[in-house]
Amino acid sequence: MSTLARGLSVWRDARSAVWNSPTLLLCLASFFWALNPIVARAARDLVSPMSLAFWRWVVAFLFVLPFAWRHIRDDRQTLRESWPVLMPLGFFGVGLFSYLVYAGLQYTTATNSLMLQAIMPIMTMVIPAVVFGERLRPLLALGAGLSFAGVVWIVTQGHPLALQWGALNRGDLLAVTAVFLYSAYATFLRKAPAVHHLSLLAALFAIGAASLATPYFAMLASEGLSLPSVEVVATVLYVGIFPSLAAYGLFNRSVVLIGSVRAGVYMNLPTVFGVGLAIPLLDEYLSSYHFVGAIMIIAAIAISRR
Predict the structure, then answer these.
(1) Neighbours of 55 (CB within 10 A)
(2) String of DSSP letters for 148-194
(3) Contact between residue 203 and residue 140 where contact means Cβ atoms under 8 Å apart
(4) CA 295 to chain centre
(5) Domain spans of the chain?
(6) How far apart are CA 221 and CA 215, in angstroms?
(7) Is the pLDDT of residue 264 over 80?
(8) What's the gap between Cα 299 and its chain centre?
């Protein structure tokens, strides 16, 4: 066997090992997602949330289309018949979700946004129990309540008894709403049609971009068109390729391998990766209420995993 043939064989074996390892897939997806709010927060004065969300999915769609085209042709009938499932998945879990994340980062820090995302594992366990009637074990209910308490502690900056709606950070509220939408997306992904994973990604990215097209072009009509800077182009390319095409593909594959509930447990990893990166990259800091809220959420995850 030639050196080239051996190299190709090793590459195929390594690719197969990664593609069939949900742990590796979810760790990679989490790392890409962790950088998403950091990049968006750093570019908040350069590009609007609507522009970033819209072009994110346009870029992701354009990059996946050449690889997905032949599969789309094979799956076109199934995709056409599955629009009642695909439309809400793409609208809420792709388009609206990403806009809410970027809009929230206009008002809150990447650290806050990432820490609030840590409740996603709990939501991906509770939502199936509510929607599909799966058994909600007492420990899971306890974990959900503790997780909610951790979110309240962070959002109120450690003063839950002095809660006033008008005093809440709108960025934190947008971040919590986005987490709920993505948790619902992860839950209902089990209803997605049995098509090739690239066909599914292309369909969801197209719906996500289309759902943002009308408000995006309305914004352009109001504010006018301007030439993007190099920093904006780099930001759009990153969020369009890594947290979108790569991370969604890895996560969807993981759901196929182990289901949405077990995959959701790993969704605390973006918080771990992201907070560790946001502090040196964005010069952000952790306050005492962050630590208290994080302890509640971590305890909730530990309880729920039992």
Answers:
(1) 22
(2) HHHHHHHHTTT-GGG--GGGS-HHHHHHHHHHHHHHHHHHHGGGS-S
(3) no
(4) 22
(5) 22-305
(6) 10
(7) no
(8) 22
Helix axes 49-81, 83-90, angle to 10 degrees: 170
Residue whose entry in the numeric block shows the structure tokens 């302890």: 295
pLDDT tens-digit map of 271-299: 778 777 887 888 877 777 777 777 777 77
Cβ partners under 8 Å of residue 287, min gap 6: 157, 158
pLDDT at residue 302 is higher than 60? yes
Please give the Cα distance from 61 to 210 (Å, whole number). 11
For residues 266 and 26, the answer to whether their CB atoms sit within 8 Å is yes
Q: What Cα–Cα distance (Å) separates residue 118 from each residue in 172, 221, 267?
A: 13, 38, 7
Q: Which of 60, 76, 23, 16 is nearest to 239 (CA)?
A: 60
Q: Six-digit token pair at 237? A: 């390319």
